[in-house]
Design goal:
Elements lengths: L9 H29 L3 H11 L5 E3 H8 L3 H13 L3 E6 L2 E9 L1 H21 L6 H19 L4
Antiparallel strand pairs: 1-3, 2-3
Helix pairs in contact: 1-5, 2-5, 3-4
Pfam families: MarR_2 (PF12802)
GO molecular function: DNA-binding transcription factor activity
InterPro entries: HTH_MarR-typ, MarR/SlyA-like, WH-like_DNA-bd_sf, WH_DNA-bd_sf
């Protein structure tokens, strides 16, 4: 039999609700802006940003999926859409016949280089400018603490 739920105290619920609302509103607005400004979907932007941050602008498909916290099927579908648009390419992994590298193409690199400055401007305007450096430091510490805690919890 299930244990009695540990409901959130009013202060805990208020913190959780405001965090979720802020996250949803921020991600929604940033996603709409990147689409309007660059024609890239939020998913396109995430994939290209991660690929262009690493040497060789390539990652194994499963490593990229894990980094983005996506299921393999979602990653495969996204890569398929981006491949059709010429933003990424798949390359076979020479040491693993079943694995594949996802590589940012020159068109993908150009797309992220064109989109990033405007996107960062929106991040700054909607998020960074609302907080003091002390707030940002606290947020970074809290985020790291929650991430470390999550790593110890079953999925």
């Amino acid at each position: 039999m299930d244990a009695t739920p540990r409901w959130l105290a009013p202060e805990q619920k208020a913190a959780w609700d405001s965090f979720i609302r802020m996250q949803e509103k921020l991600i929604g607005r940033l996603s709409r802006r990147v689409q309007a400004d660059s024609g890239l979907s939020a998913a396109d932007y995430l994939v290209l940003a991660k690929l262009t941050e690493v040497s060789g602008r390539r990652m194994r498909l499963m490593d990229l999926a894990k980094l983005l916290e996506w299921e393999k099927s979602r990653m495969s579908h996204q890569v398929g859409r981006m491949t059709k648009r010429g933003l990424v390419a798949k390359e076979e992994c020479p040491d693993d016949g079943r694995g594949a590298f996802i590589v940012a193409t020159p068109a993908g690199v150009t797309a992220i280089e064109n989109a990033a400055p405007t996107h960062v401007g929106h991040v700054r305007r909607l998020f960074i400018d609302a907080l003091s450096q002390e707030d940002l430091d606290t947020l970074a510490r809290i985020s790291s603490q929650v991430l470390a805690h999550m790593e110890k919890q079953p999925d």
